[in-house]
């Protein structure tokens, strides 16, 4: 009986774990940099909120785990970890690549605002996936078929759920939603809302508050989706009363912009000035403001 021919060991096979550890380290540093810099329009949007974890933190955890899987068997010199960690690297990088594809869709198809660190992270995730395929001498790529399909299904279902929740959170969450915003947004309102989210500004309010609704009407329904809104009433949707108490909110609405607290309905011009917004200011909806 003929012996099964042994696959040759290439340079990539010998160094793949070091390469993956390096890519993971680069991704981890990128995520830490994003956490230090602050929120972006993508990271602050409802489309990427996963279990309360911020997008950069989720990325940091993912890259850290991938780095541990990559370099763990080398450091410990434990051969028994080779198989399980390679499978973990393949599963993890597959999930990360699919999630990166989802982020690209949200960036360009929904928010229409690119995030350079997110683009770099997508490239790194794809690189990890390619290395997980080519860097190990798999007996057969067929052995990856079942775990690959399984993780792809789970990741696709998870991202679809995130998207559906962001589109209509009230259908998923108990509580009293605020009144529907019926005014439309202009390009200036949307640009200002994205800017406010990017610098970490927050609007505190309550679902029953007419002044909060008036503020939301100024932005319009399209722009309001880009704002970071904190519900202070326990009977509202996604209530965060502790966050409101910590921020010292005493009336609704209250804005927290660049460390400054603004109580009451604010004109869009005021919010633009306080936040350092320098974009277009041809606002469709006007008010006397405060």
UniProtKB/TrEMBL annotation:
Listed transmembrane segments: 53-75, 87-108, 114-132, 144-166
Domain of life: Bacteria
GO CC list: membrane
Matching InterPro entries: Thioredoxin-like_sf, VKOR, VKOR/LTO1, VKOR_sf
Stored CDD domains: TRX_superfamily, VKOR_1
Location(s), subcellular: Membrane
Key word Translocase present: no
Main location: membrane
Cross-referenced Gene3D superfamilies: Glutaredoxin (3.40.30.10), VKOR domain (1.20.1440.130)
Record protein name field: Vitamin K epoxide reductase domain-containing protein
